[in-house]
Amino acid sequence: MNEQPLNAARLLPWVGTEGRPCYVVGDGDGKVSREADKVEDMQLGMAYEILDHADDMVADDGSTAVQLRHVAAALAHSLRDVHRVARSRGLRLGIPDAFGPGHPSGPGLVRLRP
Question: Which of helix, strand or coil describes residue 11?
């Protein structure tokens, strides 16, 4: 994904200290950008695998509460990763970031209300 202009900041698929977002500046072809592409691909693949596993566990009447909590935690972690990938790709396509600094839901954990 190389749509970004020269010296544009790219949101990376990992966080830094204290959960703060990390960025790289460049044309999208550098070593860090290539590593970010690999990490994003891995995160998206893992999300699909976790979702498939969760489907199996939900369908299994023998799944315990502990097992379901574990898969729910894995799904939440994976959803955060996928959300960060989507934000990063959207920003590179010129879509405004609704979850940037100052937004009550971002860039950290999104809290859902019942």
Answer: strand
Q: How many domains does the chain have?
A: 1
Give the dihedral sign, CA 59/79/110/14. positive
Name the β-bridge partners of 9: 25
Cis, peptide link before residue 107, omega less than 30° from 0: yes
From start to end of the chain, where are the E strands?
8-15, 21-26
Q: Are 24 and 9 a contacting pair, CB within 8 Å?
A: yes
Can you give the residue range of the structural domain that contains 75? Answer: 8-92
**Residue 103 lies inside a defined structural domain of this protein:** no
Greater pLDDT, 93 or 80: 80
Q: Which of 95, 91, 85 is nearest to 40 (CA)?
A: 85
pLDDT tens digits, 42-78: 999 999 999 999 999 999 999 999 999 999 999 999 9
Q: Is 98 within the bounds of a domain?
A: no
Lowest mean pLDDT among 9-18, 41-50, 102-111: 102-111
